[in-house]
Design goal:
- The protein has helices at about 5-10, 75-85, 175-190, 210-225, 230-245; strands spanning about 30-40, 40-50, 60, 65, 95-100, 100-105, 110-115, 130-135, 145-150, 160-165, 170-175.
- It has about 260 residues and is of the alpha+beta class.
- The strands form two sheets. Strands 1, 2, 3, 4, 5, 6, 7 and 8 form an eight-stranded mixed sheet that branches.
- The longest helix has 16 residues, at about 210-225.
- The radius of gyration is 18 Å and the shape is globular.
């Protein structure tokens, strides 16, 4: 089994499938976390958002965006957005798994989709959306160097930030927020390695135990930024904790939204 096959087999353990289809209807989005093998290491591809965008301009993120009515599912959204943003054909992505959906600060339910691409892929960034494309070895997201973290009022867990010096372009990129925690999570899972820094969740076990706390921290971290937290959001957090073993097994019929819930 080569490195790609080994890594894919590990990540497939965390596929959530359709088990959360009962969750409340919220605005949805997906991101693609593209992985590839180069020089015996697994890398991930990231993008720098255009300065012309209305939101999060100039920030590092993964290819992705909001669900389109034509999209069949979360994977379809991630693949479509990746093609639009960086010219990555959907048939050149070997989808490995979808991870637990997380809430971002805007109230979108974001599903991370992990997939392998060829190391030879040459991005064709859409200048209206993407100003740069670069790659980072997963190992980088487990090291203390170039990493910092801090807590903020009203935010569960730590906010992480990395300063990545890209030797290929000579540029320096700040990777922070939800993008950073997703990068840490995928790196911890794929490498089965404890980070050198405090993550804000239990990383003693880089397998499912760390995923439990990490994913719940991400969900709560996102919902903490939403000003009006409705019962719909509470259901998502509750489902995450029950699925991840932090509470008793969930029962979908007991988690139906109540009448009069605040819409977001």
């Amino acid at each position: 089994m080569d490195l790609k096959e080994k890594t894919a087999a590990i990540l497939k353990q965390y596929e959530v499938g359709s088990r959360f289809s009962y969750l409340p209807v919220l605005p949805k989005a997906s991101v693609l976390i593209p992985l590839f093998v180069r020089d015996g290491e697994v890398h991930m591809l990231m993008t720098l958002r255009s300065q012309e965008l209305r939101t999060n301009a100039g920030e590092v993120c993964f290819p992705g965006g909001k669900r389109d009515p034509r999209d069949r599912d979360d994977v379809d959204t991630a693949l479509r957005e990746a093609e639009e943003e960086i010219g990555l054909p959907p048939d050149q992505v070997d989808v490995v798994c979808t991870l637990f959906p997380v809430m971002n600060k805007s109230g979108l339910l974001v599903t991370p989709v992990v997939g392998f691409i060829e190391a030879s892929f040459s991005p064709r960034p859409n200048p209206a959306e993407v100003s740069a494309v670069f790659t980072v070895p997963l190992e980088f997201f487990t090291r203390e160097i170039d990493h910092s973290s801090y807590s903020a009022p009203g935010i569960a867990g730590l906010l992480h930030s990395f300063q990545f010096p890209d030797s290929e372009s000579g540029s320096h990129y700040q990777i922070w927020g939800l993008t950073a925690i997703l990068a840490i999570l995928v790196s911890v899972l794929a490498l089965r390695k404890k980070p050198e820094f405090e993550t804000g969740f239990d990383s003693d076990d880089p397998n499912i135990q760390s995923t439990k706390s990490a994913t719940t921290a991400m969900v709560i971290n996102g919902t903490a930024k939403v000003e009006r937290r409705s019962r719909k959001i509470d259901i998502i957090v509750d489902a995450a904790e029950r699925f991840l073993g932090l509470k008793e097994p969930y029962h979908p019929q007991a988690l139906e939204p109540e009448k009069g819930d605040i819409e977001i």
